[in-house]
Amino acid sequence: MTFRDSVALPLLFGVLSGALGGLMGIGGGIVLVPLLLHFLHHSQHEAQGTSLAFVISTAVVAVIPYVRNDSVPWSLVGVLALGAVPGVMAGAALARRTPAGRLRLWFGLAILAAAARLLIAPPTGMGGAPWPPVWSALLGLGIGTFAGLLGVGGGIPLVPALVMGQGLTQHTAQGVSLALIVPIGLVGAISYARRGQSRPRLFPALLAGGALGGWVGATAAHALRAPVLSRLFALLLLGAAIHMIAGSRRHPSSAASPRAGGSS
Questions:
Q1: Whole-angstrom Cα distance, residue 193 to residue 146?
Q2: CB of 29 within 8 A of CB of 151?
């Protein structure tokens, strides 16, 4: 058995992705998907389905330190979830008919825009006001669609939207994001698994690593000041955006299929 075929590599990927996910309040899918693509040679769609299952364990564990620090307004999470659950189902269905190269390009452009905004004008967390419930539900719908389409937890666009749009602090926005990732990941993972677009044999190692890394990352997040955390978040987005856009150019016409190939 090679190192790539052992449980050590997915366990390591889970720890790394979970730690960054917990630290930044994003679940870790943005880190895990490229790792599965380039080191385990999964197809884009398989990597996304596996990622959605992974972010559940990361979010469940990582949200605990945020709850202990009163950083999760549950009423807002509930309203966002009303839109996010149908959104992730729609996004997963759309992903099935979308070529992998296009998915990577959309993924990269979306997070590049968020990174640029955060770096050019870092939010203070005091510039907005809470939205009416219907607008928050529509935001949840968009976040869920994004998550289902790209196989991530949705924290990438959600955290900046909550900080810049609704005036939440960075820590509170990340707590909301992690709480919302749980239903998003659950519904999205089921949607992908029904089409055979996930790797269940990797779940034990990935989820265990994600839980461990998520706890470490979330605990570390509360030791950092919000402006520092915001800039770290933007740099993470910038690196991931460049990586995914470059990947879309290398694989411009990879098409989806009910059981995606490209794995070994």
A1: 18
A2: yes
Burial 166-183 (b: 16+ CB within 10 A, else e): bbbbbbbbbbbbbbbbbb
DSSP H helices, the chain, are: 8-24, 29-39, 44-68, 74-96, 100-120, 133-150, 155-160, 166, 170-193, 203-221, 226-250
C-alpha 188 chain-centroid distance: 12
Q: Closest by alpha carbon to 260, among 18, 11, 36, 84?
A: 36
Alpha-carbon torsion 180, 103, 17, 162, what sign? negative
In contact, 40 and 263? CB cutoff 8 Å: yes
Q: Are 131 and 137 within 8 A, CB to CB? A: no
Looking at this protein, which amino acid is placed at residue 117?
R
Q: Tokens at residue 229, please? A: 């955390």
**Alpha carbons 119 and 232: distance in angstroms, whole number:** 10
For the chain, the C-alpha Rg in angstroms (whole number) is 17
> Consecutive sets of 10 residues in the chain, 264 residues long: mean pLDDT of each?
68 92 86 86 87 93 91 94 96 84 77 74 61 96 91 86 87 94 95 89 93 93 79 79 74 45 32
Which residue is it, tokens 């009303």? 82
Q: Where are the domains of the chain?
A: 8-250
Of 41, 39, 42, 46, the C-alpha closest to 16 is: 39
Q: How many CA atoms lie within 13 A of 14 on its CB side?
A: 27
Dist. CA 83–CA 158, nearest whole Å: 13
